[in-house]
Design a protein that fits this description.
- By secondary structure, this protein is α+β, with helices and mostly antiparallel strands.
- It has 6 domains: 1-92, no CATH class; 99-145, no CATH class; 153-237, no CATH class; 253-350, Ribonuclease H-like superfamily/Ribonuclease H (Nucleotidyltransferase, domain 5, 2-Layer Sandwich); 371-575, no CATH class; 590-687, no CATH class.
- It is 47% helix and 10% strand.
- The protein is built from 29 helices and 12 strands.
- The chain has a 5-stranded mixed β-sheet with strand order 10-9-8-11-12. A 3-stranded antiparallel β-sheet has the order 5-6-7.
- Strand 9 and strand 10 (280-291) form a beta hairpin.
- The longest helix has 26 residues, at 147-172.
- The radius of gyration is 41 Å and the shape is globular.
- The N and C termini lie far apart (96 Å).
Length: 688
């Protein structure tokens, strides 16, 4: 309680009340643990305030009370009688510049990162408007939509185009002899895939060889200038021409992600289409995109943004292929699933060569010794030492074998494993003698393991068997590295290989009597007897002549070779899926089916690809399909119809589509688009 004669002074601290006792006679020093707001500078935290004398609180007016009130600016100070919580000021956060804004397509043309002198930090800078922008993605989007920015952007684009045109005009216009010389040199280096730095020495050489030629004497072409001609002159023109073509034809897209020397992700986008004018498959690089994330979302977004940026209609993309990693072809979330959801007409095909190589690698692991790792270990022993190769050459000469180098199975050289197997088989006597000598000089565990593996009695039959099995797989693999369209043959080739493997250890009647997808390789009742498992001619002859192996060893060999066939069959079945109706429809490309008009109509094709029916007259396409069979064998350069049926699909249909009417126009324009539609999807060989 306050004594009588004292006054209650109410001080408002933003709804807070503080009671201060005031003397009635003398000024008193009021010490507060907080700042006070005064019109003059006063030492803090103590303030000395003159308080007028007063005898009774009731006799004071409101103005007098207000004049003696204390304004405290500290919001954290509260009196014991205050019940409201204190309100603290929220700290101010300043947005930092995010580097990934520079890579976004909508910001890339005009956004820069600069050090702001006024803010003393990195901030966004607009090249079009020459002004600083507030850091923040939403702020950048708002700035991009302003009227001034749009006007400055149009002016900037026109200046850039005019600058490029003026810079490249004398190189690509062909108006002067000097420009012709520089253009021809540029095309020569680009067409032969030579390094751009070659021009530095080549230009000096030409000046020395032809000192009297005025054009050569005035030649001013070095690496930097040559690169600009290729990039901004020929490159822009060729890319623009390609984009205009892709807007008119159906095409497939093949992608592959890699990392360059600057540790930046690069995505190569290759397109291929069937040229109706030249009757050939065209494969070209569309763009090389820098990607920040090599995930399924990042890669698929980059592809779709590329098509959107070039204004290429999405319905024109009807094929996609890539390697078989989970990012590209995962079952639930991958580039293929994301592109399929965005492009309903898309046909996705895995790289056949990559799939075949993985199937062979997994099958080899069923053998007791990993053939692939063993071959790589022998190669690594000689790869980094000229002394070892020289010593091995002496053993080759002593044993009497050819002086050939040991090969290494490459990870991306699909046909290399078979060649490595046969090379080690041929060099086996020299390798045994060499590693015995090495083990006597250096009895390391590595040399001991190698010599034990080479001298093992089962090494030779396994090498012979693996060479036989891989030769069948490589024969199929080689077929699909052809430059001609082969996709319509993929299903028959893979199923034929699977049937061949199955008949090597199962009853042939069982294999032939059912579809390949319904063959059960675990059905032991259909297995042939163990000694009848076919291992290849070379392996079977070696086993018949060998007297060192016991019965248990022979049974062991046949069981493991059967396991190889089973694993190879299962791997091929898993990695090659022919559930898409496209592979059944593609049989109409075979000349023997086309000459018999099988199928009788193209309805199934139009149902699988509805976009095809929107671009051609389906009725006329059906009429062309049924009438083309009346072309005479002489038109194909054959003596009879049987010879026509034996032609390959590309030769047959190229001849049909070249057929002209009397007025010179294409006889079957609608059918031409349908047939070329299959060749557009020939994506499998480009990934090899």
């Amino acid at each position: 309680m306050w004594n009588k004669g004292q006054t209650e002074l109410q001080t408002d601290f933003r709804t807070k009340l503080v009671k201060v006792p005031v003397s009635t006679s003398l000024p008193v020093a009021v010490s507060l643990p907080v700042e006070v707001s005064l019109p003059v500078a006063v030492p803090l935290p103590v303030a000395v305030l003159p308080i007028p004398t007063c005898t009774s609180p009731s006799s004071r007016t409101t103005e007098e009370i207000c004049a003696t009130s204390i304004v405290v600016t500290n919001p954290d100070f509260a009196s014991p009688d205050s019940t409201e919580p204190s309100k603290k000021k929220k700290p101010y956060y300043r947005q930092k510049f995010v580097d990934k804004w520079l890579a976004e397509e909508e910001f890339k043309p005009w956004l820069e990162k600069r050090l702001s002198p006024s803010k003393n930090c990195l901030t966004a800078y607009c090249k079009f408007c020459c002004v600083e922008c507030t850091n923040g993605r939403s702020e950048l989007v708002r700035h991009m939509a302003t009227r001034i920015h749009l006007q400055q952007g149009n002016t900037w684009a026109l200046k850039l185009v005019e600058q490029q045109r003026s810079t490249m005009q004398r190189f690509v216009s062909g108006s002067t002899k000097q420009a012709e010389l520089e253009g021809r040199l540029t095309l020569f280096i680009a067409d032969n895939h030579l390094a751009l730095s070659v021009i530095d020495s080549l230009s000096d050489l030409l000046k020395k060889c032809f000192p009297d030629d005025e054009r050569v004497r005035k030649l001013a072409l070095k690496k930097q200038k040559l690169g600009n001609i290729v990039r901004y002159g020929f490159g822009d023109h060729l890319k623009k021409d390609l984009v205009n073509t892709l807007k008119e034809v159906f095409f497939s897209i093949i992608i592959d992600e890699t990392t360059d020397v600057s540790v930046k992700g690069q995505l190569a986008c290759v397109v291929q289409y069937w040229c109706l004018d030249k009757h050939m498959l065209v494969v070209k690089l569309l763009d090389l995109i820098e990607v920040e994330s090599a995930t399924a979302d990042g890669l698929s977004t980059s592809v779709l943004k590329l098509l959107e940026r070039e204004n290429i209609p999405l319905e024109r993309v009807i094929g996609f292929s890539a390697d078989t990693c989970s990012t590209m072809f995962g079952r639930h979330h991958s580039v293929s699933t994301l592109l399929t959801s965005a492009l309903p007409n898309l046909l996705t095909v895995k790289c056949s060569c990559h799939s075949m190589n993985l199937s062979a690698s997994y099958a080899c692991k069923r053998l007791p010794v990993d053939i692939e790792d063993g071959l790589r270990g022998v190669f690594n022993h000689f790869s980094h030492s000229t002394a070892r190769r020289r010593n091995f050459s002496a053993f080759q000469e002593f044993v009497g074998v050819a002086k050939n180098r040991i090969l290494s199975p490459g990870q991306t050289r699909w046909l290399s494993l078979e060649a490595c197997v046969w090379r080690v088989k041929d060099q086996l006597p020299a390798l045994k003698e060499y590693f015995e000598s090495e083990y006597q000089e250096s009895n390391t565990q590595t040399n001991k393991a190698v010599i034990a593996s080479l001298k093992h009695p089962l090494t030779v039959p396994f090498l012979l068997f693996v060479g036989h099995a891989l030769s069948q797989m490589n024969e199929v693999n080689t077929q699909f590295q052809s430059e001609s369209p082969q996709l319509h043959l993929l299903k028959g080739a893979i199923e034929g290989l699977m049937q061949s493997f199955a008949t090597n250890f199962m009853n042939p009647r069982y294999v032939i009597s059912r579809e390949v997808a319904k063959i059960d390789v675990w059905l032991t009742s259909e297995y042939v007897s163990l000694r009848k498992v076919y291992l290849g001619e070379a392996a079977n002859q070696w086993i018949q002549k060998c007297t060192e192996l016991s019965t248990e060893d022979l049974d062991y060999i046949f069981k493991l070779c059967r396991s190889f066939y089973i694993e190879a069959f299962l791997q091929l079945q898993q990695r090659y899926s022919f559930k898409d109706s496209f592979f059944a429809i593609a049989d109409l490309l075979h000349p023997k089916n086309a000459r018999s008009c099988e199928p009788s109509n193209l309805t199934s094709l139009f149902q699988r690809f509805p976009v095809l029916g929107k671009n051609i007259n389906t009725s006329k396409a059906e009429l062309d399909w049924r009438s083309h069979i009346h072309l005479e064998p002489e038109f194909f350069g054959c003596a009879n119809d049987g010879s026509v049926r034996l032609l390959d699909a590309e030769s047959y249909w190229s001849t049909v589509l070249k057929c002209k009417t009397p007025n010179g126009s294409t006889k079957c324009p609608n059918l031409a688009v349908c047939i070329a539609f299959f060749f557009f999807n020939a994506v499998q060989q480009c990934c090899s």
